[in-house]
Amino acid sequence: MRIEEHPIxxxxxxxxxxxxxxxQPLNGYEGETIxxxxxxxxxxxxxxxxxKHRPRGFYCAIGNCSSCLMVVxxxxxxxxxxxxxxxxxxxxxxxxxxxxxx
Amino acid sequence: MIxxxxxxxxxxxxxxxxxxxxxxxxGVKDVVVIEKAxxxxxxxxxxxxxxxxxxxxxxxxxxxxxxxxxFENANEELDYDGDIEFKQGGYLIVSSTEKEHExxxxxxxxxxxxxxxxxxxxxxxxxxxVPFLNTEGLISATFHQKDGHLNPxxxxxxxxxxAKRLGAHxxxxxxVMDIIVEGGRIVGVKTNKGDISTNIxxxxxxxxxQLIGNMVGLELPVFSERHQILVTEPVEPVLGPMVxxxxxxxxxxxxxxxSIIMGRGDEGEPRDLRITSGWHFLEEMTKTITKVLPxxxxxxxxxxxxxxxxxxxxxxPIYGPVDEVEGFYLAIGYSGxxxxxxxxxxxxxxxxxxxxxxxxPIDMLHLNRFKKGELIFEPSVV
Lengths: 102, 382
Fold this sequence. Notes:
Chain A is mainly beta. Chain A has one helix at 34-40, and strands at 16-21, 24-29, 47-48, 55-56, 69-72, 75-79, 90-93. In chain A, a hairpin with a 2-residue loop joins strand 5 (69-72) and strand 6. Chain B is α/β, with parallel strands linked by helices.
């Protein structure tokens, strides 16, 4: 879901971008973070807690909380709430704490 | 606070808590530990937390072997309800100069003669242990599987809890203000929370050992030096052993939780009691470590901190009584290795204080070795 009209804030959408999330093709806009694009696409579970593997959602949105760490173009532990979306990105849910040897 | 004690130990790090535990276990009644902040708040809790048996002097090899053997069973021996997290992933020590390579050969021969199963490796063999090791500029390595690391907070707490069960009086947030000497003999300790009469004081104050020595009129041949360290975000286990280099000046290990801890010394460090952190370390550390272990370039840093090495001229500890003041004992000057020596310190110091024959010949580590010029120089230190 996206807010199309707002009484105070205006939205200037950038051009449409294609990316993949867990292999699934999705669209977002230039100028938004990966997390914003996923949220707009209805993806609410971003990671899982290490011990009990409970789902974790969008939380701090400013790069502090580690709730949104994902693998982006092969790089683990990317904070998708502060990483801008780019054309053709391959984004996937991270299993565990991040494999730096990939 | 109790008024009279058999032994007052100054310093609530691994040394102080281990000495207290061993004294009580041997039947001493009133043992006091005085700590100016919280347990393990000094060098113990700030250290890289490794333990290696790969040393260049017989004494250091034997002290660390004694300690390592203890750590293997410490959870049970100390009846600890937590876990000291002892991981024996080994130490991979790499050489980058011919001189160092020659020293490694001597070290391994010495270590093997003392029952330490270390081995000299070529670079291919080193890469079997750490496949992503960048061997460019390296010559050889040594490896010993029983080396490893453990959690200094849990380990200190394990000793402290065991000591308390045996009746130890541990006073945290209590500072020693003065030590009273009468007629060349210890008679008491003044703290900011009250005074304690005692005939035996143990200086286990780590980086602050000189200040405690001064209280009884001694000028000790030690100085303190800041060493910095950092920790990264947790990642999946990739690093089995502690990777270390004396010539490249680094050590790096991954704790069970997944975080990677690394540190190095700085030659320009002034001799004082600062424990502040600096950007210079961050720059040097990250530059050095990503050359040796390139995949670490993608790992984010969480924080950095610093602690004090209490250095002696020969980089080996000072153990035992002093000739100048009766009842004053030293367990100081570990030169960066006090945590890993902790269990041995506890046992050897308790034996020394009680006049027993010591498990290792620690009279060689007496303060008077510096006066006599009988230094036993440790060549392998970061």
